[in-house]
Amino acid sequence: MDRCTFQPIAPILRRVRGRTLNSAWPSLSACQPLKVAKQVAQHCSMLARQTSPRFESVSGHGVLEYWLMGRPPASNPTWLPMVLGPFSGSELKAYMTRISSEPVPEIDSEVDESFPFYHPDLGPTNIMVSDHGNSVTAISDWEAAGYFPKFLVATRPASNPAYRLIIPNTDAEKNERSKMLVEALEGMGFVCLDTAYTKWNMVKTSPA
Questions:
Q1: Judging by DSSP bridges, how do beta strands 115-118 and 146-147 pair with one another?
Q2: H helices of 13-88, where?
Q3: What pTM was estimated for this model as a whole?
Q4: φ and ψ at 84, to 5 degrees?
Q5: Residue 116, phi then psi, degrees to nearest 5
């Protein structure tokens, strides 16, 4: 069942070789984590070539994206997903301005009306790497993929705890994996607006 449209869907699955990045991390050599981060960034750059004039899902509906949304109203059942949009760049900025007292992070899409295709859940359990750890073999969990504001591509890994490793005692510096991915994405031309986004997100005042 599609959580945005409540229409039946039929996922097509294919088995791939490899391990999740989260489980492979302890056995990677000193240079392999950065190599994997750069490959993920390259995939993001390739996906971003596909664009839409609106912030929307692949099917043209609203996006299941709580990180850009106001607080769910008390009347909304906890089991019922809430979606945001579709919005043009100016409409998204107006919405984000309305629900927070802090300035909205810069939205390129307000100017060029182009939202890149993006997988918003690139945490270490959704990245598959080869047995030897040298390459990315698959990216899973595409349910929430859609067309997002460009600033989120490099900002989300810096601000979302889901991008961190979850196996205890495998990340000497708590956010090491996230920082590597952010730097790799910046190397591909994406801009991290973590400080501006965090300030905006911390003082959201209005319901969705």
A1: antiparallel
A2: 21-24, 32-47
A3: 0.90
A4: -120, 130
A5: -75, 150
